[in-house]
Amino acid sequence: MMWRRRHIFDPFYELKRMEEWMNDLMGEMQTAGGLLLPESTGKEVAPISRVPSIDLIDKGDTLVLRADVPGVDKSDISVNMKDDMIEISAERKGEEEVKEEGYIRRERHYAKYYRAVPLPASVDKDAITAKFENGVLEVTMPKVAAEEVKKIEVK
């Protein structure tokens, strides 16, 4: 019979305990419906949420954000500006029914897109424009002039 002495430090036992603790923590976050970090763009974040692929282009005096949200109607897209971050959310819903002799098949699908993107520069919130064409959302944001830094002399 092998006895385990508690006063001897076992690094593998501690690593195993830490792994179990992290698995429990991530499981609780996922069941609570909170957004977890995705493996990559386009992958599911929560059971029905997706992170759209984006391009953020700095064109000197404007920032242009392009996001892929395929299969979504223009009326189901929401673009919000919070502090120095832009949020894009969209929902895609659909239902299909096929009636043939001897059976009826009904299918429903639902997907939600969400992405919050921190902006590298301050933008004019009142002059932001957005257009949606062929599954691509394009948001144009004019930059505002950066405030000059005033040096204060220490006496």
UniProtKB/TrEMBL annotation:
Task: Using the record's annotation, list all stretches that form the CS domain.
Answer: 49-155
Keywords attached to this entry: Stress response
Q: Where is the SHSP domain?
A: 45-155
InterPro entries xref list = A-crystallin/Hsp20_dom, CS_dom, HSP20-like_chaperone, Small_HSP
Similarity field: Belongs to the small heat shock protein (HSP20) family.
- What this protein is called in its record is Heat shock protein Hsp20 domain protein
What organism, scientifically named, is this protein from?
Candidatus Syntropharchaeum caldarium
